[in-house]
Amino acid sequence: MKSKIVRAVLLAWPLAAASLAPQLPASAQDKPYKVVDGYKVDAFTLTGFRTWRAAACDRCHGANQEGLVGPSLVNSLKTLTKEEFVKTVRDGRLDKGMVSFSANKTVMDNIDALYAYLKGRSDGAITRAKVELMPEARAGS
Question: Per-residue DSSP letters for 74-122?
Fold first, then answer.
């Protein structure tokens, strides 16, 4: 009997601790980027922009992410989940002409930042394709 109580407490402890942890507001949790004035972004999101440029994604998706031979990512990221985005970038969609980036170290190392940048563009928070580091981020560098 005592061992069942101990086991129940041990199993319940992580759940109780998680519920007591401070939670970000839902809106902050939903936005992996920080942006001011439509084009000044945090260092993480800037890394996503640089990854976009390094991988030359604009060749298919357009300089403004609005599509060329590939689809508009501004539109696609309105419905794609982060998991679907990662799977698409990692595995590609060969039937649609999208190559896999699984062997591209820059892309795979920065996939979360790339998602943050593109999600900011899709949400309309980042209003220019070319971004720069926000002043607060520069001061902290």
Answer: HHHTTT--HHHHHHHHHH-BGGGTBPP-TT-HHHHHTHHHHHHHHHHHH
